[in-house]
Specification:
binds hypoxanthine, eight-stranded mixed beta sheet, binds ligand MTE, EC 1.17.1.4, single chain, five-stranded mixed beta sheet, about 775 residues, Xanthine dehydrogenase molybdopterin binding subunit, 29 strands, binds dioxothiomolybdenum(VI) ion, 4 domains, Aldehyde Oxidoreductase, domain 4
């Protein structure tokens, strides 16, 4: 029996590698299926005066051209709050905004039709930078401040002061499978949608809203995504709504699969950030007071920027403590695509603040940044163990992950070795950098911290598992199945893992915030536990023993107290339950207990617990070209008592490399008119297999199970290790001898820094 804690492979691992795993676009098309393509604006800001669709309509294969006037319900795809139009009407707010949809008998015909639509747009002045939007005071999330003590006074009273500004870029999700949805009309206005989505319930709501119907007429399913990374939390909804609109109009199934270019232009990315801060500190590098502004580029609409700003603010001090602090966060409104969830959801951007503070102050004090960071750790001497918003953090685990990463990486010896290398090599520079993280787990939006499951045991003893979580490659389905195995004491091969469906589990949260296994694991546990209780009663009667004495293990049900080895096969008992007319089906529900947040005071305990981790990375930089390689990374990551160490290891490696991409090679570039010009892999460089550190030691922290009541004492893992990639950026600073770098630290930026465009670290 391999339940919780077993290092099992991903349930679809073989199918992924052989190509047998079916993604939305692999499903056999129903007879009469039509294909849709979007007409996108190439103007960043303006008023749409006319849409000339005549040429498109006359093209072979084109069946319909649909715009805002064709929407039977609301032209509104917003996840929360203000209306966000599916099709611009008449205000155009970014280059790439959908204007209309062309439906045709083939995908090529639809794409050609879309290219033939002419939009008449009167241009308006676009706002394309965070600075300009700040000047104009235009926000999608108004500035909000988390404060404790008196930062201004503490800074004024400190022995030393510093002011700085820096920036971090956004990031394209670059999921392997792009956005796709297939909508099929049924009887009585029903619609069935297959979508690549992290949030089937929101797809359901948005489709119902756009079609002007009720949720019970819309069924959304998703077996798996070829990656989501946050990019399919809200953006999947409007793609599905467009397909559903076309299905409603034509009465035929419609597939909308975005081409990579359209996907990159029209869907949101990680928020770019601008940072401005002032700190007061002492000669030992202790930060005594800190005031900071974190300004995210929200893009043209709200989307989930409120949650991203919340997470950036609450993670701005990361694993450190500053007694007197004031952190203001906002998301400005610009004429760019609406930025959205991306692995870490503002947490990585928040953590960059304290790393910048630590590294600049360390340079000023002529101290190693690791020393300065450790002196400011939550729980360090003279420091508190509570975040500024009032939540307790486990300082002992912060100190422990750092001590272990330092030891694993052989830090002291390699420092010496690197110094010797750098002293002699004419052009190459090596550098060592580190990162320590404390990442809060739970959705910042409190009501999303809930999950449901539906478990059936059939009379042959086989089990069918459904829950509200979605599979995007992260291994959620196998982990939740392992939980159910554990409850019933059966092997994994008894459990059928099924597609997520709004018809089976309603009103779900997105699979996001790394909470998938925490929430759905408990919900499935609770469903299985209910059935197990009923089965135990039947077994107890049969054995003539107390219910408490019945034990489920090794695919059997045992009469533990009876002595000997009396048992029923699990399947036998299932059959018995059926004959005795006992229900073998149950829903299960879970809500995260004890979390709360007061928006007015910006205080509370919004996270069920924290995840901790530390990393050390070494880079080598070519000072002639600015290029670098990461040579080695050592990671210690806290996963509590891991539900599946094999899957968790994969998550840590993947998150780290994805974070490395964000910070070193992935650069989004918009031209002067606000048009994104990095629209494919030739101009947008994601990390490749050769960028994975050749020495990559990933270890799960041992013997530190979650202290909160998490499912089998496990901890979330999906997002926190993204922050560990900051160790690579820190190693680059070390190699080239600068305290700060704007990110991503592309070869160009590194070269500029080497040529002395920035401050240098004084070396004694
Ligand atoms: N891993 C893979 N392979 N593909 C993904 O799309 N998304 C990440 C992370 N790991 C992702 C991934 C993000 S953004 C989140 S929030 C979590 O997985 C969501 O899943 P979980 O809550 O089950 O960890
Ligand atoms: N993470 C991801 N998605 C979310 C969150 C979060 O914290 N809150 C609301 N949606
Ligand atoms: Mo992950 S950014 O919370 O989908």
């Amino acid at each position: 029996m391999k339940g919780a804690g077993a290092a099992l492979r991903h349930d679809s691992a073989l199918k992924h590698t052989t190509g047998e795993a079916r993604f939305a676009d692999d499903l056999a098309e129903a007879a009469g299926t039509l294909h849709a393509a979007l007409v996108l604006s190439d103007v960043a800001h303006g008023t749409l005066l006319s849409l000339d669709t005549e040429a498109a309509r006359a093209m072979p294969g084109v069946v319909a051209v649909l715009g805002p006037r064709d929407i039977p319900g609301a032209n509104d795809i917003a996840a929360i709050g203000q209306a966000e139009p599916l099709f611009a009407d008449p205000l155009v707010e970014f280059a790439g905004q959908p204007l209309a949809l062309v439906v045709a008998t083939t995908r090529d015909a639809a794409l050609l039709g879309a290219a033939a639509v002419r939009a008449g747009i009167t241009p308006l002045e676009p706002v394309l930078s965070i600075e300009r939007a700040l000047e104009l005071d235009q926000h999608v999330v108004a500035p909000q401040t988390m404060a404790r003590g008196d930062a201004a006074r503490a800074i004024a009273a400190a022995p030393r002061r510093m002011e700085a500004e820096f920036r971090a870029g956004g990031q394209e999700h670059f999921y392997l499978e792009g956005q796709v949805a297939i909508a099929s009309p049924g009887e009585d206005g029903e619609i069935a949608v297959v979508a690549s989505t992290q949030h089937p319930s929101e797809v359901q709501h948005v489709v119902a809203r756009v079609l002007g119907g009720a949720c019970n007429g819309v069924t959304v399913t998703c077996r798996r995504m070829g990656g989501g990374f946050g990019g399919k939390e809200s953006n999947a909804s409007w793609v599905a709504a467009a397909a559903a609109l076309a299905a409603r109009h034509t009465g035929r199934p419609v597939k909308l699969r975005l081409a990579r270019r359209a996907d990159m232009i029209a869907t949101g990315k990680r928020h770019p950030f601008l940072y401005r801060w002032t700190a007061g500190f002492d000669d030992q590098g202790r930060v005594l007071g800190l005031q900071a502004l974190l300004a995210a580029d929200g893009g043209w609409s709200l989307d989930m920027s409120g949650g991203v700003v919340f997470r950036a603010i609450t993670h701005a001090l990361n694993c450190c403590d500053v007694a007197d602090v004031s952190v203001t966060g906002c998301a400005v409104k610009t004429n760019t695509v609406s930025h959205t969830a991306f692995r870490g959801f503002g947490g990585p951007q928040g953590a960059l603040l304290m790393e910048d503070v630590v590294h600049r102050i360390a340079a000023a004090c002529r101290l190693p940044p690791e020393e300065v960071r450790a002196r400011n750790f939550l729980g360090a001497a003279g420091k508190g163990e509570e975040t500024p918003y009032g939540q307790k953090v486990e300082g002992d685990l912060i100190a422990r992950v750092w001590a272990e990463a330092k030891r694993d990486s052989d830090w002291d010896r390699r420092r010496g070795e690197i110094a010797a290398f750098n002293a002699t090599h004419p052009t190459l520079r090596r550098g060592l950098g580190s990162m320590v993280l404390a990442f809060g787990i739970s959705f910042g939006v409190m009501h999303l911290n809930q999950a449901g499951a539906l478990v059936h045991v059939y009379s042959d003893g086989s089990i069918r598992l459904a829950h509200g979580g979605t599979e995007m490659g992260q291994g959620l389905f196998v982990k939740v199945a392992q939980v159910v195995c554990d409850v019933f004491g059966v092997d994994l091969d008894r459990i059928a893992i099924t597609a997520t469906s709004t018809a089976e589990v309603p009103n779900t949260a997105p699979t996001a915030a790394s909470t998938g296994s925490d929430l759905n694991g408990w919900a499935a546990h609770n469903a299985a536990q209910t059935i197990k209780g009923r089965m135990a009663e039947v077994a107890a009667r049969r054995f003539g023993i107390a219910v408490e004495a019945v034990v489920f293990a090794d695919n059997r049900v045992w009469a533990e107290q009876a002595g000997g080895n009396r048992f029923l096969e699990f399947a036998e008992l299932a059959k018995l339950c059926f004959l005795e007319r006992v229900s073998l089906s149950s829903t299960g529900f879970y809500r995260t207990p004890d979390i709360h947040w007061d928006r007015a005071t910006m205080r509370g305990e919004p996270f069920f617990y924290f995840s901790y981790g530390a990393a050390v990375s070494e880079v080598i930089v070519d000072t002639l070209t600015g290029e670098h390689r990461c040579l080695r990374t050592d990671i210690v990551q806290d996963c509590g008592r891991s539900l599946n160490p094999a899957v968790d290891r994969g998550q840590i490696e993947g998150a780290f490399v994805q974070g490395m991409g964000w910070l070193t090679c992935e650069e989004l570039w918009w031209d002067g008119q606000g048009r994104l010009r990095t629209v494919g892999p030739s101009t947008y460089k994601i990390p490749g297999s050769r960028d994975v550190p050749p020495i990559f030691n990933v270890r799960l922290l041992e013997g530190a199970p979650a202290r909160s009541e998490t499912i089998f004492r496990s901890k979330a893992v999906g997002e926190p290790p993204v922050l560990l990639a900051i160790s690579v950026a820190n190693a680059l600073k070390d190699a080239i001898g600068v305290p700060a770098l704007d990110l991503p630290a592309t070869p160009e930026r590194v070269l500029m820094a080497l040529r002395g465009d920035g401050e240098k670290i004084a070396r004694d």
